[in-house]
Design brief:
266 residues, mainly alpha, 2 strands
């Protein structure tokens, strides 16, 4: 659980940290769209190179990104096993009795794993280089034009910001409950299947109660401070796009166009 880093802001001094949050959100959306363009391994190599450069510019470091990927390791292994058993296309690489491995299964697994790694890296970069308040302001500004059709942009932005903010808090709460349960004799690692299910239930129930209690306390605190989302609000901090922000968004848009061209040529 301590490997979860999504939602944690790292207060560093870098060019990525100083970017406008709206520009970072748009760049993230452009790159997430680019991930699903079928440009083959050439497209994935380009995206990996871009993510690597951004990690260096943000001064976060690759170990932090790898730490964000650790919780997904089990899912990747599970996908690999499922693909090995289900996909029976392409050239036969290995066969032992009823069990056989085809190259198409490996290629499909690599595609899925690379996409997951890219998505995790990009979203981790956004949350690690953007303060929760700035993220809220950026989302609200980007959703502002949709207010004309009745979309509550401020409420949506606040919900997303609170959800991201409380990810590390819930992880810490989970660790605290696990230690408390372990001190009472609950074993989360060993035992039969039904015993593990009971152990997990003993963890989930108090975690949900704690989450609801925190949500209630937060709601009372916001009401006590006069928070009314339907009212027109002023801002202490105003967002302003700079030349680097515009160049970054244009570059990410060009990446999409370039990968579309690669996909057509492949």
């Amino acid at each position: 659980m301590s490997n979860m880093v999504l939602g944690r802001y790292l207060p560093l001094d870098s060019k990525i940290h100083s970017m406008d949050p709206r520009a970072k959100i748009m760049c993230m959306l452009f790159l997430l769209i680019a991930i699903f363009i079928p440009a083959g391994y050439v497209g994935y190599a380009i995206l990996l190179a871009i993510v690597f450069v951004v990690v260096l510019m943000s001064k976060i470091g690759l170990p932090y990104i790898f730490k964000a990927m650790k919780p997904m390791l089990f899912m990747m292994i599970f996908l690999f096993v499922i693909n090995m058993l289900v996909i029976k296309r392409g050239n036969l690489l290995f066969e032992l009795g009823w069990f056989s491995i085809y190259d198409e299964a490996i290629f499909q697994t690599l595609y899925i794993v690379i996409r997951l790694l890219l998505m995790i890296s990009i979203t981790t970069l956004l949350t690690a280089t953007t303060k929760p308040l700035d993220l809220t302001l950026g989302i609200e500004d980007l959703l502002g034009p949709f207010q004309k059709i009745g979309l509550p942009s401020h409420i949506i932005a606040m919900m997303i910001s609170i959800a991201l903010r409380f990810i590390p808090t819930l992880i810490e709460e989970t660790q605290r409950i696990m230690k408390a349960q372990a001190s009472r004799g609950v074993d989360f690692e060993e035992g039969k299947f039904m015993e593990k299910i009971r152990s997990i239930l003993s963890l989930i129930v108090p975690l949900f109660i704690s989450a609801f209690q925190r949500a209630e306390d937060l709601a009372y605190a916001m009401e006590a401070r006069g928070y009314a989302p339907e009212n027109k609000r002023t801002r202490y901090k105003l967002l302003k796009l700079r030349a680097f922000d515009v160049v970054a968004m244009i570059f990410c848009a060009l990446v999409i166009a370039g990968l579309v061209g690669v996909a057509i040529l492949v």
